[in-house]
Amino acid sequence: MRWVQSAAGVRSVDRQLIDTIGIPSVVLMDHAGRAVAEAIRAFASSKGISAPRVQVLCGPGNNGGDGYVVARHLALAGVTVRALPAFPPVSPDCTIFAGVCERLDLIGELPAPDVLVDAVFGNGQRAGSADPGWARWSAALHIALDVPTGVDADSGAVFGAAPDRIDHVVTIGRAKPFLFGGAWMERWSGSWECVDIGFGDRGAPDALLCTEESLPALSATANKWDRGHVGVVAGSFATAGAAVLCSRAALRAGAGLVTLFASPDMIPRLAGLPAEVMLAAGPFEARGLNAVVVGPGLGRARDAEVRQIWQTCALPAVYDADALRTEGLGEPAGLRIITPHAGEAASWLGAEWRALEADRFGTIRRLRGPRVAAVLKGACPLVSGDPPVVFEGRCPALGTAGSGDVLAGLAAALLARVRPTDRDGAERVARIAVSAHLAAGRTLRVGAFASEIADGLPAALEHLRHEGTVLKESS
Fold this sequence. Notes:
By secondary structure, the chain is of the alpha/beta class.
């Protein structure tokens, strides 16, 4: 498991190593700088630059101190490098290592460097700063040391003069929440790595980046009842396609049977419904089902039915889309997986969506209930847990109309097959569903239909079964 830890959590572990274990701060800084220098050389080599010329731009605090150490270790490895103070050293350790670089004649500006290392402000930045002149290094590969300047380590918000382009991030000690959300991602290639400096298992994770799970294999004699029967309460006259996509995804994810509980007015609009889906033109009936999905394209005309299923149906159920805006749900009668995006989470929690997006790790904790597992959709989805699990998503092909309907149907099919008995089991199902959704999306290009995501689910789930893991680390 790879831990994701907040800025405050990382600083706390730093203090433990220094104050409790007794490792001098300069030793930690030198260890970190050496590891980052090795990572920079490896990244440059991966881009075809075997003998990089490296400019390190250093700030006044400990991130700048790390930068000066990086410059020294690069120089020791034979790399042409210079460290340039963007601001004069202020912190004691930064001052020490800036002096070392000065005595080694490593202070200055290189003409036309191949690589720019941003070591201006890191994990502790809280406000913007003046532009150090990013534009004059626009031709160089831009590598951020720990946290890019002008980016909040927890929220990924951009403030001040952040660089326009970030090619790679080498974060120190632990992965940090900014790697999985925030406006800064629009400037970033998505490439990153985390260098180990001996944190071990100190502190507590705010999330886990990946978790190993295996999709239970079906026996050779499994029949449609073993695979489960999914009931779909979705769609309306204007959005019948959501019901079609949800039903299709449930079948593609391996449900043995799927029944769509359709309102009479939408039946003429179900031409795209797979022939394998059974149609019930009447009120919801739980008998014979193993799981339910409620909400995709449903509108608000069936709120009373949504509420009744929530309060009286003991079957595990996925609640998505319009069902998440229904008021007065109360306590659920069975296990639930809710799958909101930020706007739906705002309705669910009675909060402002921008505030929830600014604290996605806090939001997923708020969405979780005693019998409620949650998926917070977005570029890097989160699944509730103790701690939550974050997925390194960034799959633009999934950003299309109907993609969420596919995820809801997929999750319901897995509920019907796995049949969890507690919230931990429901969260495991949610993790497998998110992983399969991502795996199917990664086989497609932007412009693919949501129906194509659904059609990619059999191969995605088979891959997960053979790999035995919900998400393989890609960094």
